[in-house]
Amino acid sequence: MSRLALLAAPLLLGLALPSLAQPACNADGSQLEMNQCAFDDLGRADAELNATYGQALRSMKDQPVAVERLKAAQRLWVQLRDADLAAQFPLAEGQSAQVEYGSIYLLEYATAQAELTRQRTAYLRAHFLADDSR
């Protein structure tokens, strides 16, 4: 067995164990289970965004100005996403989200954040990873 395979095996096993230990998502379960499903979905959407963003940066590696502009745009998008979420779930200073929106708040917030994240991923793919025939 190669040395690389011996080094990678514990890492791969460590990554697989948490998913083996957790039950499958139960979207019709308790509020806690539904929240976990929404957080899992957000995690997948975020991982996909990060992978797509990384691909876009790598595809521009010979264009330092473009790389810096995309990085700046991504930082601004994070601010816009957070502002959009704050507008969708407005809270005055000192208000509690759980009191204002109830126990479903975490699920709805994570779902909205995942949707915005998927939209950004699609945008990056369409504009930065589309074929280079432009």
Q: Can you put this structure into words, describing what you see?
A:
- The chain has 134 residues and is mainly α.
- It is built from five helices and no strands.
- Helix 2 (31-59) packs parallel to helix 5.
- The longest helix has 29 residues, at 31-59.
- The protein is flat.
What keyword list fits this structure?
134 residues, mainly alpha, 76% helix
Determine Rg (CA atoms, Å).
19 Å
Beta-strand portion reads: under 5%
Number of strands: 0
Integer average pLDDT: 86
Question: What topology emerges from the helices and strands here?
Answer:
Blueprint: H1 3-21, H2 31-59, H3 64-88, H4 97-101, H5 105-128
Quickly describe the structure.
The chain is an all-alpha fold and 134 residues long. Helix content is 76%, strand content 0%.
